[in-house]
Design goal:
single chain; 334 residues; alpha/beta; Rossmann fold; 2 domains; nine-stranded mixed β-sheet; 14 helices; globular; Meta-cleavage_hydrolase; AB_hydrolase_1; AB_hydrolase_fold
Length: 334
């Protein structure tokens, strides 16, 4: 009799332990602990190996804050380089393969665009202009005001290219040189519609702001031409954690930014900027095809186009060393 009671008691405790174990496992997969740990290691990498420091700037509009990673020890002998990311996560994840090398040649200013990473605004405007204004407002507070050593060069990719071009157009006294990588600057409404249909029509904005592991896999496959096999080895729960960390907090605002970009009617004639401009394209870009790079080069008389073979849209991920060499030689050249 006593032995039967012990068996029942053991089964009861075993059931409780198994229930607790299942709860912990489910919470582990649901809570984005792995991506948060990886994000923390990226921050440590930026701090220790790249001499970068996190700074959050409150803008004068009283509505916006912009988060930057900036060089911890700025040198007068080095030019200032602003790095503007595209869709696909915050600035750390997009520039992790580039910052170490570039930090040796430049005073870096790496913002999270508004609604990405730790940057935020109460402003209801979702235009490229408000992004440009927010970044410039933050840069001015950090000493880049266009005077003396306050001038900047801007390296931008994809969505960041739209912001960089607007900065060069509105604040020419501040922006000396421009590097635009794989960006649809100057795309007409018809061209945007055509490209959207290739990748899912109205669903395109959801791909830019993925909600499921399948969406994220689609975004990566559209963006990259090499290194895609690793996707088959990444479990869905890790991709889900990445989506939670990068997109869930400001999902609605990010969707509105994408919708504004894709649906807005561009100016009849793209303004010609005066800054020397380096255009860089992967010849396998499926987001903004290489033909657009040639057209943008013809539009900008003070520009040159560099083409990287067998590379897709995400040049910063697929060919970071080649891209860094192009940026450094262009910006440092007299």
């Amino acid at each position: 009799m006593a032995s039967m009671k012990l068996v029942h008691l053991f089964r009861r405790y075993l059931s409780i332990v198994l229930t607790l174990f299942q709860t912990l496992i489910s919470r582990f997969f649901d809570f984005p602990i792995l991506i948060k740990i990886a994000d923390s290691f990226l921050s440590l990498y930026f701090l220790v190996f790249c001499d970068l420091r996190p700074v959050t700037v409150d803008l004068d509009d009283g509505e916006s804050t912009v988060h930057f990673w900036i060089s911890g020890h700025r040198r007068i002998s080095r030019p200032n380089l602003v790095m503007l990311h595209g869709y696909g996560g915050n600035s750390k994840w997009q520039f992790v393969h580039q910052v170490s090398d570039l930090s040796k040649s430049f005073n870096l200013f790496i913002p999270d665009l508004v609604f990405f990473g730790k940057s935020y605004s109460k402003n209801q405007d979702r235009s490229v202009e408000i992004q440009a204004s927010s970044i410039v407002g933050g840069l001015k507070k950090l000493g880049c005001d266009g005077g003396g050593r306050g001038k900047i060069s801007v390296y931008s990719i994809s969505y960041g290219g739209f912001v960089a071009y607007k900065m060069a157009e509105i604040w020419p006294e501040m922006v000396e040189k421009l590097v635009i990588v794989s960006s649809g600057v100057g795309f007409t409404q018809q061209e945007k519609t055509t490209e959207m249909r290739k990748h899912g029509g109205d669903y395109c904005s959801e791909i830019l702001v993925p909600k499921t592991p399948m969406d994220l896999r689609t975004l990566v496959r559209i963006s990259m031409n090499t290194g895609l096999k690793f996707l088959d080895w990444v479990p869905d729960f890790i991709l889900s954690q990445f989506i939670t960390v990068m997109y869930e907090k400001n999902r609605q605002e990010l969707l509105e930014l994408a919708k504004n970009l894709l649906e807005r009617e561009e100016e009849p004639e793209l303004p010609v900027i005066s800054q020397k401009t380096l255009l860089v394209w992967g010849d396998k870009d499926k987001v903004f095809p290489l033909e657009h790079g040639y057209r943008l080069q013809r539009h900008l008389q003070s520009s040159r186009l560099e083409i990287i073979k067998e590379i897709g849209h995400a040049v910063n991920m697929e060919a970071p060393t080649t891209l860094n060499n192009l940026i450094t030689s262009f910006v440092l050249s007299v």
